[in-house]
Amino acid sequence: IETKIPAQSREVWNKHKVQKFSTAEEFEEKFISHVEWTLARSLYNCDDIAAYQATSQSVRDNLVIDWNKTQQRQTARDGKKVYYLSLEFLMGRALDNALINMRTDTSTHDVGSTDETLTKGNTSREMIRNAMKQLGFKLEDVLEQEPDAALGNGGLGRLAACFVDSLATGNYPAWGYGLRYQYGIFAQKIINGYQVETPDYWLNFSNPWEIDRWEIQVPINFYGYVDRSDKEKTTISPSDWIGGERVLAVAHDMPIPGFKTSTVNNLRLWSAKPTTEFDFAKFNNGDYKNSVEQQQRAESITAVLYPNDNFDQGKELRLKQQYFWCAASLHDIVRRFKKNKKPWSEFPEAIAIQLNDTHPTLAIVELQRILVDLEKLEWHYSWDIVTKTFAYTNHTVMQEALEKWPVGLLGHLLPRHLEIIYDINWFFLQSVEKKFPHDVDLLSKVSVIEEASQERYVRMAFLAIIGSHKVNGVAELHSDLIKTTIFQDFVKIYGANKFTNVTNGITPRRWLKQANPKLAELISETINDPDDDYLLDMSKLTALSKYAEDEAFQTKWNDVKQFNKLRLADLIKHLNDGVDIIDREHIRNTLFDIQVKRIHEYKRQQLNIFGVIHRYLSIKELLQSGASIEKVAERYPRKVSIFGGKSAPGYYMAKLIIKLVNSVAEVVNADTEIQDLLKVFFIPDYNVSKAEIITPASDLSEHISTAGTEASGTSNMKFVMNGGLIIGTVDGANVEITREIGEDNIFLFGNLSENVEELRYKHQFSNPGLPEGLVKVLNALESGAFSPQNSSEFRPLIDSIKHQGDYYLVSDDFDSYIATQDLVDQVYHKDKKEWLKKSILSVANVGFFSSDRCIEEYAETIWNAEPVKPE
Ligand code: Z57
Question: What highest taxon heads this organism's lineage (predicted)?
Fold first, then answer.
């Protein structure tokens, strides 16, 4: 590797080589020097926040050493590099994760152990905990100081975060590329039962996890025109795009440590800043203020994350974000490639670029522009390189989430890119015409340009398919669905092999070891794996199966669950202004029923809350008919129904569902007649760090989307990994979860995806009459039982079912949902041993859903990339 340092200076560099801390002693020294030098504080003003900063800086120092070595090693080895382009990385907190991942010990066990006989070379979380104690701090309190890096909305963004963890753990030479939003997803407040959004300015204190690369600045152009004064030139020959607005993309790197490996990969996030160029025309006109203001606007590009999940708002600023990020990332990738002086034909062997949804589709167009316009390569030669480089992951079949940009808007912002899109489409349609002559209908169906209405649109998913060599869905059912529905014509054109499935996964480091240390400890002890190697090879968990019916083990298993339920009960009490709604006395016999995820009609939180209302009404009915509370408890045993999740700020129905949950909670929790048989709570501001407390505490979690709408779901995997059972529809990854853990260990209900179309169709015409139970619920809603001040408040939720065709099939699945909830009660309360057996077997067989497996599949079947292992 090249260097500017003369050979004779090497000695000095080697003599003063930086070293990682590896003992408690060395850590303490680092910590204190960061308090003094980095923070300019001292023993006299070091609070928990300062301790968090100093600890993070110290840990970061270790990571940076390995980061540098990893980059050198990966460059020297010159294997294929993988780039994961995602507009969202929902990372959560970094410190605890780094402490867990950077552990290098091979002999000490670190959870709950008070063993202080850690020797040199063992950098473990436990060592740091003890050292911090020596320094006067409690690790758990210090960890709480870190704000979540909430640069994502939901599943898609969290998936990207799990992926970078697994890429580093698997030693893949892989970088993530994203945007460094100044404001992540909004913080959610609940005021009078309504969601209120408040800004998440997460960079309030300096962020110890980012390395600012002020030297890496990429100029990005927008607007302007294409110079066509040379009449010889066509749109497929090298063209000059004269940009009209210019901003700079600045790199910020986050180190991504792998688990039990010294590989530290990079997550590069771009922020926008004004160029130092000045608009002298304006300035000379005396318009100094305007000229400065225009410059200031640059920063708005990376100011805020769009807060929609599974919905395309189509705003110009969003398109600007997308191009800004794609152009900066590609410039960076191409720059690195060119250092090697390889021929362009080798580009696809050197580089794989994965597109996380259609958000980075412009990267395809940008690479074609770089090759044709800047590198002056022939069009078709370039296009061959492009299509061999890219692969596209689809995450949804929902129409409202599929991106399409008005041709006018795209052409205004990126005039040269629109030309290239038209030419890509032209050559594509020609090839279709050749294969299926005279099929005009087919041509209009698969054209990148939609011409159905006045406005013409660019269909980004079609462009992504055409520009990629592989397209994958995120769970088996979903990957089958895209082949038979939204992309069926492309299967006809390209053949089925272009389309593949890679079922999602989650990282067991964060979602088991970090979130549920007690369960992790019990597992490692039981399967005799003191070094937690099962976190790398989850098939080891199958060894738990033989204890599934072992009573002593079941008791320990149940104790862990109780611990986690108490931990959540504490959080809920804290969030409820110190008022405890959960009866600690009975917590062992109280079923924790949890649904936490983005609020969306297709995810059907409305079905859940209708079920809760139904349960409440039934309890009341029984009591009114004279049954004793004990008698009622036999039919409706104790339950706490927990909800959480954000609604997009502009999504009226989702916000109404949140309000309904809170209104029901208010009525039910205040009803002394039912005692503690039923409690309802909406956890405000659901995020990654809250998920780490919530997930381990579930007895039951709900994954109840209308069949065919949830592409995969990933929280279903998290709950199973923590010993929770699932009530769910035959949708997304629920299907494979059932296959892996066994159909006896999951509560499935509802209509199948193959029947959805017909059911929806029927709703348009006939009115089959709603199920009796649902009628009671809707009547109660209509009567204002949960909205005394405004009895029509929930009208839209009722109307959607009664008068608008019940698009999400709540009425069709209602009875089967209620019946299945009854079954849940039966098993949980009448046969606890059976329940625990199901729970243990679930964890024993959850291994498939590790994101390590998932990344390996991407590497083998899509990227053709191999790990670069440290010596
Ligand atoms: C998003 O979070 C998902 C899909 C999208 O198209 C967008 Br935009 C955001 C989710 C799916 O809804 C989940 O089912 C899936 O598990 C997740 O992406 C990760 O694949």
Answer: Eukaryota
